[in-house]
Amino acid sequence: MHMLIMYSAGTDLELRDWLRRASESAGTPLVVRAVPEAALIACSTDYELLRPVLLELKRWYPEGLAHVNILRREIQTTLVARLALLHAENL
């Protein structure tokens, strides 16, 4: 007989800390941050539906979602530097 374990955001030791970090990552696109936020308020049944998606998001973003913001800033800085260089070359 297979025993089904019902998780929630508070009892899921594999995802609990990651969920907190991911849901608090300001500046992360809302559609990406919404899944961890929904998991934090979901009942056990709904959490079970979200868990496979959460595990995949954790695989994609192991440190939470904060590095998405770091990457975005790096891209913006690079673009601004290139634009400034182009502008200077055209003067």
Would you write up a description of this structure?
The chain is mainly α. It contains four helices and no strands. The protein has helices at 16-23, 30-41, 44-60, 66-89. Helix 1 (16-23) packs across helix 2 and helix 2 (30-41) packs antiparallel against helix 3 (44-60). The protein starts with 15 loop residues before the first helix and ends with a helix. The mean pLDDT is 77.
Mean residue pLDDT: 77
Our estimate of the beta-strand percent is under 5%
Largest sheet: none
Which term fits the overall shape?
Answer: rod-shaped
Structure classification: mainly alpha
- Uncertain segments of ≥5 residues (pLDDT<50)? none
- The percentage helix is 55-70%
Q: Could you give the order of the helices and strands?
A: HHHH
Radius of gyration: 19 Å
Counting H and I runs of at least 4 residues, what is the number of helices?
4
What multimeric state do the chains show?
single chain
The termini sit apart by 76 Å
**Got a strand count?**
0
Write the SSE topology.
Blueprint: H1 16-23, H2 30-41, H3 44-60, H4 66-89
Helix pairs in contact: 1-2, 2-3
Throw out a few tags for this protein.
4 helices; mainly alpha; 91 residues; rod-shaped
Entry summary:
With 91 residues, this protein is mainly alpha-helical. It is built from 4 helices and no strands.
